Amino acid sequence: MATVLKTSEEQILPRNTILIDGEWRSTASGGAMEHVNPTTGRAQASFAVGGAKEIDEAVQAAKRGFPAWRKVTADVRREILYRFAQLLKDNAASFDHIGALESGAPIARSMLGMVIDQVTYAAV
Q1: Cβ proximity of 116 and 90 under 8 Å
Q2: For the whole model, what pTM was predicted?
Q3: Are residue 80 and residue 47 in the same domain, yes or no?
Q4: What is the pLDDT of residue 103?
Q5: 47, 22: one domain
Q6: Bridge partners of 37?
Q7: Is there a contact between 123 and 78 (Cβ–Cβ < 8 Å)?
Q8: What pLDDT digit, counting tens, does each position of 34-86 carry?
Q9: Binning pLDDT at 50, 70 and 90, where does residue 7 land?
Q10: What are phi and psi of 41, to 5 degrees?
Q11: Are residues 14 and 52 part of one domain?
């Protein structure tokens, strides 16, 4: 029996939310933005847009989190970056597909490899 991989835009595009202080929000003061695939001209998704209110909340959350992050050792930070690079590699097909839908460029022109290299370099 063959396995069918579902790769429709609805399943692969990020959800219509923004993340602030560990909370996913589906609405924001900046309203919503419709994304149009530049290749097809077809609307693909609508995304919440953060406004000044969400920026202020995100900055305050970052300020609250910074004292704990400051205490994280360089070795632990390095491991976090290496793990992030590995997650990008493990999910490269999905990220490449999202990038193609977003930009209209062919998957073959993906720059994900360069991103992974930069994250890995930052870990060193």
Answers
A1: no
A2: 0.75
A3: no
A4: 85
A5: yes
A6: none
A7: yes
A8: 888 888 888 888 888 999 999 999 999 999 999 999 999 999 999 999 999 99
A9: very low
A10: 75, 10
A11: yes
For residues 3 and 20, state if they share a domain: yes
Which 8-state DSSP code applies to residue 14? P
In the chain, alpha helices (H): 9-12, 52-70, 74-90, 92-103, 112-123
Domain check: are 30 and 79 in the same one? no
Which sign, positive or negative, has the C-alpha torsion 39, 42, 47, 53? positive
* Range(s) of the domain holding residue 110: 72-124
Structural domain total, the chain: 2
| DSSP category for residue 61 | H
53 plus 94 within the same structural domain: no
Q: Is the four-CA dihedral 91, 118, 57, 65 of positive or negative sign?
A: positive
Structure tokens of 84? 């992030």
Residue with tokens 């992974």: 116
pLDDT computed for residue 11 by the predictor: 62
Only one residue has tokens 């209209």, namely 104
Residues 60, 90, single domain; the answer is no
Distance CA 85, CA 121 (A): 10
